[in-house]
Amino acid sequence: MFDSHAAEMERTKRTFAALSSDASARLRERAVKGVSIPDAVALMAESIRRIHGITAYDVQLAAGLALAKGRLAEMATGEGKTLVALLPAFCFALEGRGAHIATVNPYLARRDFEFARPAFDLLGLTTGLLAVGGDKAEKRAAYACDVTYGVGTEFGFDYLRDQLAIRAASEGGRGARFHEVLLGGAARRPDTVQRGHAFAVIDEADSVLIDEASSPLIISAGAKSRNAAPHVYRLADGIALRLESGEHFTRDPEANRLELTPEGERRALDLLTDEAIPRLRRLWPHYVEAALRARHQLRPDVHYVVREGEVVIVDEFTGRLCPDRTWRDGIHQAVEAAAGLDVTEENCSEATITRPAYFKLYRTVCGMTGTAREAASELRASYGLRTVTIPLNRPSRRAILPDRVFATQAAKLAAVVREIHARRARNQPVLIGARTIENSEALACKLDVPFRILNAKQDAEEARVIARAGDPGAVTIATNMAGRGAHIPVPEAGLRAGGLHVIGLERHEAGRIDRQLLGRAARQGQPGSGQFFLSLEDDLLRRHAPELAQRLAKISPDAEGELPVRIASRFLRTQRKVENADRDRRRQLAKYDEWLDELKQTL
Asked: Partners of 203 in the beta sheet?
Protein backbone atom coordinates (compact mmCIF):
# COMPACT_ATOMS: atom_id res chain seq x y z
CA MET A 1 0.00 0.00 0.00
CA PHE A 2 2.67 2.48 1.02
CA ASP A 3 4.97 1.50 -1.86
CA SER A 4 2.31 1.89 -4.56
CA HIS A 5 0.91 5.16 -3.20
CA ALA A 6 4.01 6.71 -1.64
CA ALA A 7 3.75 9.93 -3.67
CA GLU A 8 0.14 10.51 -2.67
CA MET A 9 0.96 9.80 0.95
CA GLU A 10 3.82 12.32 0.94
CA ARG A 11 1.65 14.95 -0.72
CA THR A 12 -1.12 14.36 1.81
CA LYS A 13 1.25 14.72 4.74
CA ARG A 14 2.93 17.87 3.35
CA THR A 15 -0.44 19.54 2.86
CA PHE A 16 -1.17 19.43 6.61
CA ALA A 17 1.10 22.33 7.52
CA ALA A 18 -0.38 24.86 5.07
CA LEU A 19 -4.08 24.23 5.39
CA SER A 20 -6.78 26.73 6.33
CA SER A 21 -10.48 26.18 6.82
CA ASP A 22 -11.52 28.26 3.79
CA ALA A 23 -9.70 25.82 1.49
CA SER A 24 -12.88 23.73 1.44
CA ALA A 25 -14.70 26.28 -0.70
CA ARG A 26 -11.89 26.27 -3.26
CA LEU A 27 -11.84 22.48 -3.38
CA ARG A 28 -15.59 22.41 -3.78
CA GLU A 29 -15.40 24.76 -6.75
CA ARG A 30 -12.87 22.43 -8.36
CA ALA A 31 -14.82 19.27 -7.53
CA VAL A 32 -16.73 19.31 -10.82
CA LYS A 33 -13.44 19.26 -12.72
CA GLY A 34 -11.91 16.63 -10.44
CA VAL A 35 -10.83 17.19 -6.87
CA SER A 36 -7.40 16.18 -5.63
CA ILE A 37 -7.94 13.24 -3.33
CA PRO A 38 -4.67 13.75 -1.37
CA ASP A 39 -5.53 17.41 -0.71
CA ALA A 40 -9.07 16.57 0.38
CA VAL A 41 -7.92 13.78 2.71
CA ALA A 42 -5.32 16.08 4.25
CA LEU A 43 -7.87 18.87 4.72
CA MET A 44 -10.31 16.59 6.55
CA ALA A 45 -7.52 15.21 8.73
CA GLU A 46 -6.48 18.77 9.66
CA SER A 47 -10.06 19.66 10.55
CA ILE A 48 -10.24 16.63 12.87
CA ARG A 49 -6.94 17.69 14.48
CA ARG A 50 -8.21 21.21 15.14
CA ILE A 51 -11.59 20.10 16.49
CA HIS A 52 -10.66 17.00 18.50
CA GLY A 53 -6.90 17.37 19.00
CA ILE A 54 -6.35 13.99 17.30
CA THR A 55 -3.60 13.70 14.70
CA ALA A 56 -4.30 11.00 12.11
CA TYR A 57 -1.73 8.22 11.86
CA ASP A 58 -0.03 7.55 8.55
CA VAL A 59 -1.93 4.26 8.31
CA GLN A 60 -5.23 6.13 8.74
CA LEU A 61 -4.32 8.53 5.94
CA ALA A 62 -3.42 5.52 3.78
CA ALA A 63 -6.79 3.94 4.52
CA GLY A 64 -8.56 7.21 3.69
CA LEU A 65 -6.79 7.39 0.31
CA ALA A 66 -7.76 3.78 -0.46
CA LEU A 67 -11.40 4.30 0.48
CA ALA A 68 -11.66 7.50 -1.55
CA LYS A 69 -10.74 5.38 -4.58
CA GLY A 70 -13.54 2.88 -3.91
CA ARG A 71 -11.49 0.23 -2.14
CA LEU A 72 -12.26 -1.94 0.85
CA ALA A 73 -9.73 -1.34 3.64
CA GLU A 74 -8.94 -4.10 6.09
CA MET A 75 -7.96 -2.34 9.30
CA ALA A 76 -7.33 -4.22 12.52
CA THR A 77 -9.67 -3.66 15.44
CA GLY A 78 -8.75 -0.55 17.40
CA GLU A 79 -6.91 1.21 14.56
CA GLY A 80 -9.37 4.13 14.41
CA LYS A 81 -11.94 3.40 11.71
CA THR A 82 -14.31 6.09 13.07
CA LEU A 83 -11.82 8.79 12.08
CA VAL A 84 -10.96 7.12 8.79
CA ALA A 85 -14.59 7.15 7.60
CA LEU A 86 -14.56 10.95 7.53
CA LEU A 87 -11.69 11.11 5.04
CA PRO A 88 -13.40 9.51 2.01
CA ALA A 89 -16.79 10.95 3.04
CA PHE A 90 -15.36 14.45 2.68
CA CYS A 91 -13.89 13.63 -0.73
CA PHE A 92 -17.27 12.29 -1.90
CA ALA A 93 -19.34 15.08 -0.31
CA LEU A 94 -17.42 17.73 -2.25
CA GLU A 95 -19.28 16.62 -5.38
CA GLY A 96 -22.54 17.79 -3.80
CA ARG A 97 -24.45 14.57 -4.36
CA GLY A 98 -24.44 13.27 -0.79
CA ALA A 99 -22.36 10.63 0.93
CA HIS A 100 -23.90 7.93 3.12
CA ILE A 101 -21.97 6.38 6.01
CA ALA A 102 -23.61 3.11 7.03
CA THR A 103 -22.95 1.69 10.50
CA VAL A 104 -24.14 -1.54 12.13
CA ASN A 105 -26.34 -0.13 14.92
CA PRO A 106 -28.01 3.13 16.08
CA TYR A 107 -25.55 3.70 18.92
CA LEU A 108 -22.53 3.70 16.59
CA ALA A 109 -24.38 5.87 14.05
CA ARG A 110 -25.08 8.55 16.66
CA ARG A 111 -21.63 8.30 18.24
CA ASP A 112 -19.85 8.66 14.90
CA PHE A 113 -22.21 11.44 13.78
CA GLU A 114 -21.48 13.47 16.92
CA PHE A 115 -17.74 12.99 16.37
CA ALA A 116 -17.96 13.99 12.70
CA ARG A 117 -20.37 16.93 12.75
CA PRO A 118 -18.05 19.64 14.15
CA ALA A 119 -15.23 18.58 11.81
CA PHE A 120 -17.50 18.87 8.78
CA ASP A 121 -19.00 22.11 10.11
CA LEU A 122 -15.52 23.68 10.17
CA LEU A 123 -15.19 22.90 6.46
CA GLY A 124 -18.63 24.24 5.55
CA LEU A 125 -20.35 20.90 4.96
CA THR A 126 -23.59 19.72 6.57
CA THR A 127 -24.03 16.43 8.42
CA GLY A 128 -27.26 14.56 9.11
CA LEU A 129 -28.25 11.62 11.32
CA LEU A 130 -30.79 9.14 10.00
CA ALA A 131 -32.89 8.26 13.05
CA VAL A 132 -34.44 4.79 13.03
CA GLY A 133 -38.21 5.26 13.01
CA GLY A 134 -37.98 9.00 12.28
CA ASP A 135 -40.72 10.74 10.30
CA LYS A 136 -40.35 11.61 6.64
CA ALA A 137 -39.53 15.27 7.21
CA GLU A 138 -36.64 14.37 9.53
CA LYS A 139 -35.31 11.78 7.13
CA ARG A 140 -35.62 14.06 4.12
CA ALA A 141 -33.60 16.69 5.98
CA ALA A 142 -30.94 14.11 6.90
CA TYR A 143 -30.61 12.94 3.29
CA ALA A 144 -30.38 16.54 2.07
CA CYS A 145 -27.13 16.96 4.03
CA ASP A 146 -23.70 16.58 2.44
CA VAL A 147 -22.95 13.58 4.67
CA THR A 148 -25.58 11.29 6.21
CA TYR A 149 -24.90 8.84 9.02
CA GLY A 150 -27.26 5.94 9.68
CA VAL A 151 -27.73 2.22 10.20
CA GLY A 152 -27.14 0.30 6.98
CA THR A 153 -30.51 -1.45 7.06
CA GLU A 154 -32.34 1.87 7.53
CA PHE A 155 -30.86 3.19 4.28
CA GLY A 156 -32.21 0.08 2.57
CA PHE A 157 -35.66 0.30 4.16
CA ASP A 158 -35.95 3.97 3.19
CA TYR A 159 -35.19 2.98 -0.39
CA LEU A 160 -37.99 0.40 -0.29
CA ARG A 161 -40.41 2.92 1.22
CA ASP A 162 -39.50 5.35 -1.55
CA GLN A 163 -40.21 2.67 -4.15
CA LEU A 164 -43.64 2.11 -2.62
CA ALA A 165 -44.24 5.89 -2.67
CA ILE A 166 -43.23 6.03 -6.35
CA ARG A 167 -45.56 3.13 -7.10
CA ALA A 168 -48.43 4.82 -5.26
CA ALA A 169 -47.88 8.08 -7.18
CA SER A 170 -48.06 6.28 -10.51
CA GLU A 171 -51.04 4.06 -9.75
CA GLY A 172 -53.31 6.23 -11.90
CA GLY A 173 -51.37 5.30 -15.01
CA ARG A 174 -51.45 7.18 -18.30
CA GLY A 175 -55.14 8.03 -17.96
CA ALA A 176 -54.59 9.98 -14.77
CA ARG A 177 -51.62 11.77 -16.31
CA PHE A 178 -53.74 12.68 -19.37
CA HIS A 179 -56.45 14.24 -17.15
CA GLU A 180 -53.82 16.16 -15.20
CA VAL A 181 -52.56 17.71 -18.44
CA LEU A 182 -56.07 18.56 -19.69
CA LEU A 183 -57.08 20.13 -16.37
CA GLY A 184 -53.82 21.99 -16.02
CA GLY A 185 -53.01 20.29 -12.74
CA ALA A 186 -49.57 19.34 -11.53
CA ALA A 187 -48.49 15.74 -11.76
CA ARG A 188 -48.67 13.78 -8.53
CA ARG A 189 -45.19 13.74 -7.02
CA PRO A 190 -44.01 10.74 -5.02
CA ASP A 191 -43.42 11.42 -1.32
CA THR A 192 -39.82 10.15 -1.18
CA VAL A 193 -36.97 10.93 1.23
CA GLN A 194 -33.78 9.83 -0.52
CA ARG A 195 -32.17 11.95 -3.24
CA GLY A 196 -30.14 9.29 -5.00
CA HIS A 197 -27.29 6.87 -4.40
CA ALA A 198 -23.94 8.40 -5.21
CA PHE A 199 -21.46 7.33 -2.52
CA ALA A 200 -21.52 4.89 0.37
CA VAL A 201 -18.97 4.18 3.10
CA ILE A 202 -19.84 0.88 4.80
CA ASP A 203 -18.55 0.06 8.26
CA GLU A 204 -18.02 -3.67 8.96
CA ALA A 205 -18.38 -4.17 5.21
CA ASP A 206 -17.72 -7.92 5.24
CA SER A 207 -20.61 -8.45 7.66
CA VAL A 208 -22.99 -6.37 5.52
CA LEU A 209 -21.93 -7.60 2.08
CA ILE A 210 -21.07 -11.21 2.91
CA ASP A 211 -22.62 -12.47 6.15
CA GLU A 212 -25.97 -10.72 5.68
CA ALA A 213 -26.12 -11.18 1.91
CA SER A 214 -28.77 -13.90 2.13
CA SER A 215 -31.06 -11.94 4.51
CA PRO A 216 -33.17 -9.63 2.33
CA LEU A 217 -34.73 -6.40 3.56
CA ILE A 218 -38.51 -6.77 3.44
CA ILE A 219 -41.35 -4.33 4.01
CA SER A 220 -44.58 -6.15 4.80
CA ALA A 221 -48.15 -4.95 4.52
CA GLY A 222 -49.99 -4.17 7.72
CA ALA A 223 -49.03 -4.18 11.37
CA LYS A 224 -48.88 -7.31 13.51
CA SER A 225 -52.39 -8.52 14.35
CA ARG A 226 -53.92 -11.69 15.76
CA ASN A 227 -54.19 -14.52 13.29
CA ALA A 228 -57.71 -15.38 12.15
CA ALA A 229 -56.93 -19.12 12.22
CA PRO A 230 -54.41 -19.80 15.02
CA HIS A 231 -55.72 -23.35 15.44
CA VAL A 232 -54.10 -24.28 12.10
CA TYR A 233 -50.61 -23.49 13.40
CA ARG A 234 -51.31 -25.06 16.81
CA LEU A 235 -52.52 -28.23 15.10
CA ALA A 236 -49.32 -28.36 13.03
CA ASP A 237 -47.26 -27.85 16.19
CA GLY A 238 -49.08 -30.68 17.96
CA ILE A 239 -48.47 -33.00 15.02
CA ALA A 240 -44.77 -32.02 14.90
CA LEU A 241 -44.39 -33.19 18.49
CA ARG A 242 -45.66 -36.64 17.48
CA LEU A 243 -43.30 -37.15 14.54
CA GLU A 244 -39.99 -39.05 14.81
CA SER A 245 -36.71 -38.00 13.18
CA GLY A 246 -35.60 -40.44 10.51
CA GLU A 247 -39.00 -42.09 10.21
CA HIS A 248 -41.25 -39.08 9.60
CA PHE A 249 -38.75 -36.35 8.67
CA THR A 250 -35.13 -35.89 7.68
CA ARG A 251 -32.68 -33.16 8.65
CA ASP A 252 -29.86 -31.78 6.53
CA PRO A 253 -27.76 -29.63 8.89
CA GLU A 254 -25.37 -28.41 6.20
CA ALA A 255 -28.20 -27.04 4.05
CA ASN A 256 -30.20 -26.06 7.15
CA ARG A 257 -33.14 -27.95 5.67
CA LEU A 258 -35.81 -30.17 7.23
CA GLU A 259 -38.26 -32.22 5.12
CA LEU A 260 -41.06 -34.69 5.71
CA THR A 261 -40.58 -38.22 4.42
CA PRO A 262 -43.43 -39.86 2.42
CA GLU A 263 -44.43 -41.62 5.64
CA GLY A 264 -44.32 -38.29 7.48
CA GLU A 265 -46.57 -36.65 4.89
CA ARG A 266 -49.09 -39.49 5.21
CA ARG A 267 -49.02 -39.17 8.98
CA ALA A 268 -49.48 -35.37 8.81
CA LEU A 269 -52.41 -35.69 6.38
CA ASP A 270 -54.06 -38.37 8.52
CA LEU A 271 -54.03 -35.96 11.49
CA LEU A 272 -55.34 -32.96 9.52
CA THR A 273 -58.78 -31.96 10.81
CA ASP A 274 -61.78 -30.95 8.70
CA GLU A 275 -61.95 -27.66 10.64
CA ALA A 276 -58.46 -26.62 9.52
CA ILE A 277 -58.79 -27.46 5.80
CA PRO A 278 -60.75 -24.32 4.72
CA ARG A 279 -58.21 -22.02 6.41
CA LEU A 280 -55.09 -23.34 4.69
CA ARG A 281 -53.03 -20.82 2.69
CA ARG A 282 -50.50 -23.38 1.42
CA LEU A 283 -50.09 -27.15 1.22
CA TRP A 284 -50.57 -28.78 4.62
CA PRO A 285 -47.14 -30.51 4.72
CA HIS A 286 -45.53 -27.04 4.56
CA TYR A 287 -47.28 -26.08 7.81
CA VAL A 288 -45.97 -29.21 9.50
CA GLU A 289 -42.44 -28.69 8.18
CA ALA A 290 -42.52 -25.12 9.54
CA ALA A 291 -43.64 -26.49 12.91
CA LEU A 292 -40.82 -29.06 12.84
CA ARG A 293 -38.32 -26.32 12.11
CA ALA A 294 -39.68 -24.27 15.01
CA ARG A 295 -39.24 -27.27 17.31
CA HIS A 296 -35.93 -28.67 16.07
CA GLN A 297 -33.95 -25.85 14.42
CA LEU A 298 -34.98 -22.50 15.91
CA ARG A 299 -34.05 -22.33 19.58
CA PRO A 300 -35.02 -19.72 22.19
CA ASP A 301 -32.13 -17.49 23.32
CA VAL A 302 -30.22 -18.61 20.23
CA HIS A 303 -32.32 -17.68 17.21
CA TYR A 304 -34.99 -15.66 19.02
CA VAL A 305 -36.08 -14.33 22.39
CA VAL A 306 -39.57 -13.90 23.80
CA ARG A 307 -40.05 -10.30 24.89
CA GLU A 308 -43.34 -8.86 26.13
CA GLY A 309 -45.28 -11.75 24.64
CA GLU A 310 -43.69 -11.48 21.19
CA VAL A 311 -41.09 -13.51 19.31
CA VAL A 312 -38.14 -11.25 18.49
CA ILE A 313 -35.50 -12.57 16.08
CA VAL A 314 -31.84 -12.48 17.13
CA ASP A 315 -29.40 -11.67 14.33
CA GLU A 316 -27.01 -14.64 14.26
CA PHE A 317 -24.04 -12.50 13.15
CA THR A 318 -24.36 -9.55 15.51
CA GLY A 319 -26.28 -11.05 18.43
CA ARG A 320 -28.72 -8.13 18.28
CA LEU A 321 -32.48 -8.14 18.53
CA CYS A 322 -34.37 -7.41 15.30
CA PRO A 323 -37.90 -6.39 16.38
CA ASP A 324 -38.92 -5.35 12.85
CA ARG A 325 -37.90 -8.64 11.27
CA THR A 326 -40.11 -11.73 10.89
CA TRP A 327 -39.61 -15.15 9.32
CA ARG A 328 -41.56 -15.85 6.17
CA ASP A 329 -43.71 -18.71 4.88
CA GLY A 330 -45.47 -19.29 8.19
CA ILE A 331 -42.29 -20.02 10.13
CA HIS A 332 -42.73 -17.04 12.46
CA GLN A 333 -46.27 -18.21 13.26
CA ALA A 334 -44.96 -21.76 13.87
CA VAL A 335 -42.44 -20.40 16.40
CA GLU A 336 -45.21 -18.42 18.13
CA ALA A 337 -47.32 -21.58 18.38
CA ALA A 338 -44.38 -23.60 19.73
CA ALA A 339 -43.68 -20.88 22.33
CA GLY A 340 -47.32 -20.86 23.45
CA LEU A 341 -47.88 -17.23 22.36
CA ASP A 342 -50.67 -15.53 20.46
CA VAL A 343 -50.26 -16.37 16.78
CA THR A 344 -50.00 -13.28 14.57
CA GLU A 345 -51.21 -12.83 11.03
CA GLU A 346 -48.84 -13.61 8.18
CA ASN A 347 -47.82 -10.42 6.43
CA CYS A 348 -47.55 -10.06 2.67
CA SER A 349 -44.32 -8.63 1.32
CA GLU A 350 -44.86 -5.32 -0.45
CA ALA A 351 -41.25 -4.59 -1.29
CA THR A 352 -37.96 -6.43 -0.86
CA ILE A 353 -34.29 -6.08 -1.77
CA THR A 354 -31.16 -7.89 -0.73
CA ARG A 355 -28.41 -5.91 0.98
CA PRO A 356 -25.96 -6.55 -1.88
CA ALA A 357 -28.52 -5.41 -4.44
CA TYR A 358 -29.16 -2.23 -2.48
CA PHE A 359 -25.51 -1.24 -2.20
CA LYS A 360 -25.02 -1.94 -5.91
CA LEU A 361 -27.30 1.07 -6.52
CA TYR A 362 -24.48 3.40 -5.48
CA ARG A 363 -22.07 4.82 -8.03
CA THR A 364 -19.15 4.30 -5.65
CA VAL A 365 -19.01 1.98 -2.65
CA CYS A 366 -16.13 1.60 -0.22
CA GLY A 367 -15.87 0.04 3.19
CA MET A 368 -13.84 -0.88 6.23
CA THR A 369 -13.57 -3.99 8.35
CA GLY A 370 -11.10 -5.82 10.51
CA THR A 371 -11.57 -9.08 8.61
CA ALA A 372 -11.75 -8.90 4.82
CA ARG A 373 -8.75 -11.01 3.84
CA GLU A 374 -10.63 -14.33 3.78
CA ALA A 375 -13.45 -12.87 1.67
CA ALA A 376 -11.30 -10.71 -0.65
CA SER A 377 -11.88 -12.82 -3.77
CA GLU A 378 -15.66 -12.98 -3.20
CA LEU A 379 -15.89 -9.24 -2.56
CA ARG A 380 -14.07 -8.54 -5.79
CA ALA A 381 -16.10 -11.03 -7.83
CA SER A 382 -19.48 -9.94 -6.43
CA TYR A 383 -18.98 -6.19 -6.00
CA GLY A 384 -15.83 -5.25 -7.89
CA LEU A 385 -14.30 -4.20 -4.55
CA ARG A 386 -10.54 -4.54 -4.27
CA THR A 387 -9.29 -5.20 -0.75
CA VAL A 388 -6.33 -3.25 0.64
CA THR A 389 -4.71 -4.46 3.85
CA ILE A 390 -3.65 -1.52 5.99
CA PRO A 391 -0.59 -2.12 8.21
CA LEU A 392 -0.80 -1.76 11.98
CA ASN A 393 0.12 1.59 13.46
CA ARG A 394 2.11 -0.25 16.12
CA PRO A 395 3.39 -3.86 16.10
CA SER A 396 0.93 -6.32 17.63
CA ARG A 397 1.69 -7.85 21.02
CA ARG A 398 -1.35 -10.13 20.99
CA ALA A 399 -0.73 -13.71 22.15
CA ILE A 400 -3.09 -16.29 20.61
CA LEU A 401 -3.12 -19.47 22.71
CA PRO A 402 -3.98 -22.93 21.29
CA ASP A 403 -7.65 -23.96 21.31
CA ARG A 404 -8.70 -26.26 24.13
CA VAL A 405 -11.27 -29.00 23.39
CA PHE A 406 -13.54 -30.78 25.88
CA ALA A 407 -15.82 -33.77 25.58
CA THR A 408 -18.90 -32.00 26.94
CA GLN A 409 -20.32 -28.53 27.32
CA ALA A 410 -20.32 -28.94 31.11
CA ALA A 411 -16.60 -29.78 31.19
CA LYS A 412 -15.85 -26.81 28.94
CA LEU A 413 -17.74 -24.34 31.10
CA ALA A 414 -16.04 -25.69 34.23
CA ALA A 415 -12.64 -25.12 32.59
CA VAL A 416 -13.63 -21.60 31.54
CA VAL A 417 -14.63 -20.81 35.12
CA ARG A 418 -11.23 -22.06 36.36
CA GLU A 419 -9.48 -19.93 33.73
CA ILE A 420 -11.45 -16.84 34.75
CA HIS A 421 -10.50 -17.40 38.40
CA ALA A 422 -6.81 -17.72 37.48
CA ARG A 423 -6.79 -14.57 35.31
CA ARG A 424 -8.80 -12.57 37.82
CA ALA A 425 -6.45 -13.57 40.65
CA ARG A 426 -3.68 -11.60 38.95
CA ASN A 427 -5.99 -8.65 38.23
CA GLN A 428 -6.24 -9.31 34.48
CA PRO A 429 -9.49 -8.23 32.76
CA VAL A 430 -11.35 -11.00 30.90
CA LEU A 431 -13.87 -10.69 28.05
CA ILE A 432 -15.81 -13.85 27.20
CA GLY A 433 -17.38 -13.99 23.75
CA ALA A 434 -20.46 -16.23 23.45
CA ARG A 435 -22.06 -17.02 20.10
CA THR A 436 -25.57 -17.12 21.57
CA ILE A 437 -27.57 -15.64 24.44
CA GLU A 438 -28.17 -19.21 25.64
CA ASN A 439 -24.44 -19.88 26.02
CA SER A 440 -23.75 -16.54 27.67
CA GLU A 441 -26.39 -17.23 30.31
CA ALA A 442 -25.23 -20.83 30.79
CA LEU A 443 -21.78 -19.52 31.73
CA ALA A 444 -23.24 -16.76 33.89
CA CYS A 445 -25.02 -19.39 35.98
CA LYS A 446 -21.68 -21.09 36.71
CA LEU A 447 -19.74 -17.99 37.78
CA ASP A 448 -19.28 -17.18 41.45
CA VAL A 449 -17.36 -13.92 40.91
CA PRO A 450 -18.67 -10.45 40.02
CA PHE A 451 -19.30 -10.10 36.29
CA ARG A 452 -21.16 -7.99 33.75
CA ILE A 453 -23.20 -9.53 30.97
CA LEU A 454 -23.84 -7.94 27.61
CA ASN A 455 -26.24 -9.62 25.23
CA ALA A 456 -29.16 -8.75 23.00
CA LYS A 457 -31.42 -8.43 26.04
CA GLN A 458 -29.50 -5.40 27.35
CA ASP A 459 -28.78 -3.58 24.10
CA ALA A 460 -29.42 -0.12 25.59
CA GLU A 461 -26.61 -0.59 28.13
CA GLU A 462 -24.10 -1.88 25.59
CA ALA A 463 -21.68 1.05 25.41
CA ARG A 464 -21.57 1.54 29.17
CA VAL A 465 -20.91 -2.15 29.86
CA ILE A 466 -18.28 -2.71 27.17
CA ALA A 467 -16.39 0.44 28.19
CA ARG A 468 -15.70 -1.18 31.58
CA ALA A 469 -14.53 -4.53 30.17
CA GLY A 470 -10.87 -3.51 30.41
CA ASP A 471 -10.97 -2.61 34.11
CA PRO A 472 -8.40 -4.58 36.17
CA GLY A 473 -9.93 -7.91 37.23
CA ALA A 474 -13.19 -7.23 35.36
CA VAL A 475 -15.15 -10.18 33.95
CA THR A 476 -17.48 -9.38 31.04
CA ILE A 477 -19.62 -11.81 29.04
CA ALA A 478 -20.73 -10.59 25.61
CA THR A 479 -22.80 -12.39 23.00
CA ASN A 480 -21.08 -12.81 19.66
CA MET A 481 -19.92 -9.34 18.61
CA ALA A 482 -22.09 -7.30 20.98
CA GLY A 483 -20.33 -4.01 21.64
CA ARG A 484 -18.54 -4.26 18.29
CA GLY A 485 -17.08 -0.89 17.35
CA ALA A 486 -16.99 0.39 20.95
CA HIS A 487 -13.58 1.19 22.44
CA ILE A 488 -12.37 -0.91 25.40
CA PRO A 489 -9.80 1.13 27.37
CA VAL A 490 -7.40 -0.87 29.55
CA PRO A 491 -5.86 1.07 32.48
CA GLU A 492 -2.19 0.68 33.38
CA ALA A 493 -2.93 -1.82 36.15
CA GLY A 494 -4.74 -4.05 33.66
CA LEU A 495 -1.89 -3.76 31.15
CA ARG A 496 0.64 -4.76 33.80
CA ALA A 497 -1.45 -7.87 34.47
CA GLY A 498 -1.21 -8.89 30.79
CA GLY A 499 -3.85 -6.73 29.14
CA LEU A 500 -7.34 -7.80 28.09
CA HIS A 501 -7.72 -11.59 27.75
CA VAL A 502 -10.45 -12.78 25.38
CA ILE A 503 -12.08 -16.21 25.72
CA GLY A 504 -14.20 -17.57 22.88
CA LEU A 505 -16.83 -20.08 24.03
CA GLU A 506 -17.03 -21.73 20.61
CA ARG A 507 -15.96 -21.34 17.00
CA HIS A 508 -18.38 -19.50 14.72
CA GLU A 509 -19.40 -20.74 11.29
CA ALA A 510 -17.35 -17.87 9.78
CA GLY A 511 -13.71 -17.64 10.81
CA ARG A 512 -13.76 -13.88 10.21
CA ILE A 513 -16.08 -13.43 13.19
CA ASP A 514 -13.67 -15.39 15.38
CA ARG A 515 -10.89 -13.05 14.28
CA GLN A 516 -13.03 -10.04 15.15
CA LEU A 517 -13.50 -11.39 18.66
CA LEU A 518 -9.79 -12.00 19.21
CA GLY A 519 -9.07 -8.56 17.77
CA ARG A 520 -10.70 -6.92 20.77
CA ALA A 521 -7.57 -7.67 22.79
CA ALA A 522 -4.16 -6.01 22.45
CA ARG A 523 -5.14 -2.94 20.45
CA GLN A 524 -2.60 -0.29 19.40
CA GLY A 525 0.43 -2.30 20.50
CA GLN A 526 -0.91 -3.06 23.98
CA PRO A 527 -0.38 -6.49 25.56
CA GLY A 528 -3.31 -8.90 25.42
CA SER A 529 -4.24 -12.48 24.65
CA GLY A 530 -7.00 -14.74 23.40
CA GLN A 531 -8.05 -18.40 23.38
CA PHE A 532 -11.01 -20.56 22.32
CA PHE A 533 -12.61 -23.21 24.52
CA LEU A 534 -14.50 -25.80 22.45
CA SER A 535 -16.58 -28.92 23.07
CA LEU A 536 -17.92 -31.79 21.01
CA GLU A 537 -21.41 -30.49 21.81
CA ASP A 538 -20.80 -27.09 20.16
CA ASP A 539 -23.20 -26.07 17.40
CA LEU A 540 -20.47 -26.12 14.75
CA LEU A 541 -20.08 -29.90 15.07
CA ARG A 542 -23.60 -30.71 16.22
CA ARG A 543 -25.19 -28.97 13.21
CA HIS A 544 -22.61 -29.48 10.50
CA ALA A 545 -20.59 -32.58 11.43
CA PRO A 546 -22.62 -34.79 13.80
CA GLU A 547 -20.92 -37.98 12.60
CA LEU A 548 -17.50 -36.46 13.27
CA ALA A 549 -18.63 -35.49 16.78
CA GLN A 550 -19.72 -39.08 17.40
CA ARG A 551 -16.34 -40.45 16.29
CA LEU A 552 -14.41 -37.97 18.40
CA ALA A 553 -16.58 -38.81 21.41
CA LYS A 554 -14.93 -42.26 21.45
CA ILE A 555 -11.60 -40.66 22.44
CA SER A 556 -11.10 -40.80 26.20
CA PRO A 557 -10.73 -37.38 27.84
CA ASP A 558 -8.55 -36.64 30.88
CA ALA A 559 -9.88 -36.30 34.41
CA GLU A 560 -11.22 -32.81 33.70
CA GLY A 561 -12.91 -33.80 30.46
CA GLU A 562 -10.27 -32.30 28.14
CA LEU A 563 -9.36 -33.96 24.82
CA PRO A 564 -6.01 -33.88 22.96
CA VAL A 565 -5.21 -30.47 21.43
CA ARG A 566 -4.87 -31.99 17.94
CA ILE A 567 -8.67 -32.37 17.79
CA ALA A 568 -8.98 -28.59 17.47
CA SER A 569 -7.95 -28.85 13.81
CA ARG A 570 -11.18 -30.79 13.11
CA PHE A 571 -13.19 -27.73 14.18
CA LEU A 572 -11.26 -25.50 11.77
CA ARG A 573 -11.76 -27.97 8.90
CA THR A 574 -15.49 -28.05 9.60
CA GLN A 575 -15.52 -24.27 9.73
CA ARG A 576 -13.86 -24.01 6.31
CA LYS A 577 -16.33 -26.54 4.92
CA VAL A 578 -19.27 -24.46 6.16
CA GLU A 579 -17.69 -21.26 4.80
CA ASN A 580 -17.35 -22.85 1.35
CA ALA A 581 -20.97 -24.04 1.42
CA ASP A 582 -22.17 -20.58 2.47
CA ARG A 583 -20.11 -19.00 -0.31
CA ASP A 584 -21.72 -21.32 -2.87
CA ARG A 585 -25.20 -20.43 -1.57
CA ARG A 586 -24.45 -16.72 -1.89
CA ARG A 587 -23.29 -17.24 -5.46
CA GLN A 588 -26.50 -19.07 -6.30
CA LEU A 589 -28.53 -16.29 -4.67
CA ALA A 590 -26.64 -13.68 -6.69
CA LYS A 591 -27.35 -15.60 -9.91
CA TYR A 592 -31.02 -15.83 -8.99
CA ASP A 593 -31.17 -12.08 -8.33
CA GLU A 594 -29.57 -11.40 -11.72
CA TRP A 595 -32.08 -13.69 -13.43
CA LEU A 596 -34.95 -11.99 -11.60
CA ASP A 597 -33.72 -8.54 -12.62
CA GLU A 598 -33.48 -9.63 -16.26
CA LEU A 599 -37.01 -11.04 -16.06
CA LYS A 600 -38.36 -7.79 -14.62
CA GLN A 601 -36.63 -5.79 -17.36
CA THR A 602 -38.12 -8.10 -20.01
CA LEU A 603 -41.62 -7.75 -18.57
From this structure: 368
